């Protein structure tokens, strides 16, 4: 074998090894893509022809099962945990798994949706628990149920997840503080009426005194006249004697 043949064979083997490492690295990680739409009040999910739980992307305009057009939500947080199934893994459910069915290994990420309602994360092979967090300022008062994803998903490098939860647009923002109850209007009490009987009694006394003095004066004047008459009569009798 010539030197050129050996060199060519070495280069081919090296290239194959390099391509193998690159392909292994390229397909080792899966991309979890969370897309958040807010369901209208009363809706329970997407319309039937848009309900997908297979990890594929919804390419058309999303509608809820009531026919209402959905809007993306930004600023919604998701906690992602790497977990390990307990036992044989038979109790581990894809939606709202019981806590006894898994063990949390570590927290992987705290994601928040952007202006397009999207949050994404690259993960290696394993089980992952995704928990949505409430956000009253966005009207998200009740979070979607927790989800479990097993990576990799067969045939998919990008796995799309659409958490479903209702949004009450009328209850956005922090709760309003209750207004203080108005104070009752105090009606001023009427002043107590004083007993006017004393005023009436004392008011009549001056009139009674005036009447009495006039009567006494009259009696005195008559008595004075009688005395004068008696003196004149006595004087005349003495003159006659």
UniProtKB/TrEMBL annotation:
Key words of the record: Membrane, Transmembrane, Transmembrane helix
Coiled coil: none
Residue ranges annotated for the Gram-positive pilin subunit D1 N-terminal domain, each copy included: 49-164
InterPro entries per the UniProt record, alphabetical: GramPos_pilinD1_N, Ig-like_fold
Pro residues biased stretches: 175-185
Membrane-spanning parts: 210-230
Region (Disordered): 167-198
Top-rank lineage group of the source organism: Bacteria
Matching NCBIfam families: LPXTG_anchor
Stated name of the protein: Gram-positive pilin subunit D1 N-terminal domain-containing protein
Species whose genome carries this gene: Lactococcus lactis subsp. lactis
């Amino acid at each position: 074998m010539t030197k050129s043949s050996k060199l060519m064979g070495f280069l081919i083997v090296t290239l194959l090894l390099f391509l193998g490492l690159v392909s292994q690295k390229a397909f080792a990680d899966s991309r979890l893509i969370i897309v958040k739409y807010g369901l209208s009040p009363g809706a329970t999910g997407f319309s039937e022809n848009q309900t997908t739980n297979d990890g594929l992307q919804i390419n058309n305009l999303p509608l809820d099962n009531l026919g209402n057009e959905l809007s993306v939500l930004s600023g919604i947080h998701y906690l992602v945990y790497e977990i390990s199934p307990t036992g044989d893994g038979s109790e581990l459910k894809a939606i709202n798994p019981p806590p006894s069915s898994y063990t949390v290994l570590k927290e992987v990420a705290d994601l928040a949706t952007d202006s397009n309602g999207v949050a994404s994360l690259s993960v290696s092979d394993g089980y992952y628990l995704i928990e949505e967090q409430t956000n009253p300022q966005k009207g998200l008062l009740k979070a979607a149920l927790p989800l479990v994803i097993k990576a990799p998903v067969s045939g998919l490098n990008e796995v799309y997840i659409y958490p479903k939860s209702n949004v009450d647009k009328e209850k956005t923002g922090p709760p309003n503080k209750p207004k203080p109850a108005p104070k009752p209007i105090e009606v001023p009490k009427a002043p107590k009426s004083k007993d006017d009987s004393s005023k009436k009694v004392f008011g009549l006394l001056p009139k009674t005194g005036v009447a009495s003095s006039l009567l006494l004066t009259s009696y005195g004047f008559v008595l004075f006249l009688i005395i004068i008459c008696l003196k004149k009569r006595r004087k005349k009798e003495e003159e006659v004697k």
